[in-house]
Amino acid sequence: MPLVKIADYYPDYRNNHSDVDDVQNFDVYAERNEKVGTVHNILVDSVNGNFRYLVVDTGFWIFGKKVLLPVGRADIRYTDKLIYARGLTKEQVEELPNYDELEKIDYDYEEQVRGVYRGSTATSGLNQPASYDRASYNYQQDSSLYDMPSSDGQTLKLYEERLIANKQRQKTGEVSIGKHIETETARVAVPVEKERVVIERNSPTDTRPQNSSSDAFRPGEVARMEIYEETPDIRKEAIVREEVRVKKVVEQDTVQAQEKLRREELDIDSQGLPIVDK
Fold first, then answer.
1. Which residue in 75, 129, 70, 140 sits closest to 105, CA to CA?
2. What is the spatial distance between Cα 20 and Cα 9, in angstroms, rounded to a whole number?
3. What is the domain partition of the chain in residue ranges?
4. What is residue 238's predicted lDDT score, i.e. its pLDDT?
5. What is the rounded distance in angstroms from the CA atom of residue 256 to the CA atom of residue 89?
6. Cα–Cα distance for residue pair 153/28, rounded to 1 Å
7. How far is it, in rounded angstroms, from Cα 2 to Cα 137?
8. Which residues of the chain have pLDDT under 70?
9. Stated pTM of the model
10. Looking at the domain that runs over 3-146, which CATH code has it been given?
11. In the 3-class helix/strand/coil scheme, how is the chain assigned residue by residue?
């Protein structure tokens, strides 16, 4: 039966088969707790899509060799992210034919692989047990190699979404505060005083002759009087009109957001059997 890579049979398997996606790159260990390599790919039956082999890259264990591990020999530990290859030894890996991205896997190649796991040295269809026939072979004849191992306990992961609220500080603007000069015309009125000389001429009331003529005529007699006036003294001076303080304050606000969250729940089909849900 033709075998194909899982991505060729299930193009969208990464979205629909999360467990399968997890298996890729799992480490593979032999029974003596020796690391065999890592899962490089998965081969499925092109007729019904059943898993048949894990392609294991042996890496430095057996340098540069890729071999096939039947799924029935793979004990997958999802929690530990590793696979135990039951009954696999280093000697068997050395006997297995190199996969190395073959374009086509035929019956003879698979028989070489099966022969190693059966404990025989079948090569190219030689030394096959009589019960195996090329025309009528069915994978059920090697159920120990191809039946996925069952266990008493299995884990099913239920996922749910949750909202994660974080804050980011970002610059929303910039305020620049400076000064500029404006000019206006101011007017002020200052009262000033000026002195003037006023000469008043009056007719004497006493016209009697003077006893002494020496007081009557004195040439060069002068009356002096100082005259003053005020002049405005107007000037400009700078004074502090007001003080401006610039500071920041923090205002708090609450932003509301809502999203639809998904949660997985179990669908239990017990078919009438008693189930204890703890």
1. 70
2. 13
3. 3-146
4. 92
5. 61
6. 21
7. 13
8. 1, 13-22, 61, 63, 101, 103, 120-132, 149-157, 210-216, 271-278
9. 0.50
10. 2.30.30.240
11. CCEEEHHHHCCCHHHHCHHHHHHCCCEEECCCCCEEEEEEEEEEECCCCCEEEEEEECCCCCCCCEEEEEHHHEEEECCCCEEEECCCCHHHHHHCCCCCCCCCCCHHHHHHHHHHHHCCCCCCCCCCCCCCCCCCCCHHHHHHHHCCCCCCCCCCCCCECCCCCCCCCCCCCCCCCCCCCCCCCCCCCCCCCECCCCCCCCCCCCCCCCCCHHHCCCCCCCCCCCCCECCCCCCCCCCCCCCCCCCCCCCCCCCCCCCCCCECCCCCCCCCCCCCCC
> Alpha-carbon distance 71 to 253, whole Å?
58
Note the pLDDT of residue 203: 85
Q: Residue type at 43?
A: L
The single residue listed with the structure tokens 């006036």 is 229
Q: Identify the CA nearest to 145 among candidates 56, 51, 77.
A: 51
